[in-house]
């Protein structure tokens, strides 16, 4: 493995489960906060904009359940979730309702009045008016980013995998159907490699003269303290997503039990992953706080923010495939919505790395698909 974030750690785990000899390399310390798989929480949901994604979400839950069973730790916390569509929303609600219907996944189509009735916290704001519609998904929940990644690393190690932190891979060289992995410690020859390097994917692929357009953005999530958190706990407050441009999302109180977490989707500036900063962006915080007070009313204190990197493909679909010219090298990219699928990515990558046929369901994530090689267009990210 090149990269031991959520996806690479999952691949190490699922490969070790097969009894394969696994070695993984991470350029920073294991559990670092410089990539995309840290912090308390990530949304897991069945509601998606295509039937293919909706179908795959069933496997995403299933693959996390396997991690739960082996680790005896909870990975999925069910909260219920609402995708909120204001009139004229930038994101088309019918792609969600039709995809859920096509896959026979239960949901409710409710109006703003019903949202306020079920979750009174939204009645304190003035944004969820009666003409705002929502897809309510009872299966929506939370998976723990940092903890989930660590658990998969521990399970992989317990099954015999060797995971190296603080060991940057300087080069990967295909050699006669195998691959040489070059680090400062020397060269390691392996039968196949999984590149799960997210924001650094272009750097790794460059060595093979392969390029795909990717946008790396510096995003941030913010924790807003509140003197009274009644009505914001799991069970009385849902995961929510505002399906417009700009798009915002938030969680019930989870992990940090003193605050309400929220964030903007695709609100950050493009950065170089090695030159980015970690200070909160005051402008993003202010924008988010103003939105949050319109949505949920006043009463939020000054936030604590955590930065994180998005790696966006042109079509915001995943990359999950073997390289056409080097089938011994597989590439995985979560396109800034991959953590809910992390364990499924791992299970699928294990099959690819062991030379199994590429499942048909991966066709939308093929490396050769034309939309992946199209120029970056931000509007394609709002799906
Ligand atoms: C703010 C934010 C909110 C998100 N919310 C959600 C959500 O609600 N639901 C959801 O499903 N997804 C969400 N995502 C997306 C999700 O977190 C990512 O898709 C996922 O974490 C990507 O995992 P990864 O392992 O590919 O990337 P990373 O965790 O970044 O791992 C890549 C690793 O590769 C290492 N690496 C790179 N190059 C080298 C090298 N040469 N040698 C050795 N190591 C190397 C890096 O150091 C890094 O650790 C969110 C992301 C962010 C940033």
What is the CATH architecture descriptor? Answer: 2-Layer Sandwich
Query: At the fourth CATH level, what is the homologous superfamily?
Result: D-Amino Acid Oxidase, subunit A, domain 2
The domain tally reads: 1
Q: How confident is the prediction overall: mean pLDDT? A: 97
How much helical structure, as a percent, in the residues? 25-40%
List low-pLDDT spans: none
Helix vs. strand class:
alpha+beta
Shape: globular
Q: Distance between termini?
A: 30 Å
Please characterize this protein's 3D structure.
The chain is of the alpha+beta class. The chain has a single domain, classed as D-Amino Acid Oxidase, Chain A, domain 2 (2-Layer Sandwich). Helices cover 25% and strands 25% of the residues. The chain has eight helices and 19 strands. The strands form five sheets. It has an eight-stranded mixed sheet with strand order 5-6-4-14-15-16-13-17, sandwiched between helices. A hairpin with a 2-residue loop joins strand 9 and strand 10. Helix 1 runs parallel beside helix 5. The relative contact order is 0.20. The structure holds flavin-adenine dinucleotide. Flavin-adenine dinucleotide binds next to helix 1, strand 2, strand 13 and strand 17.
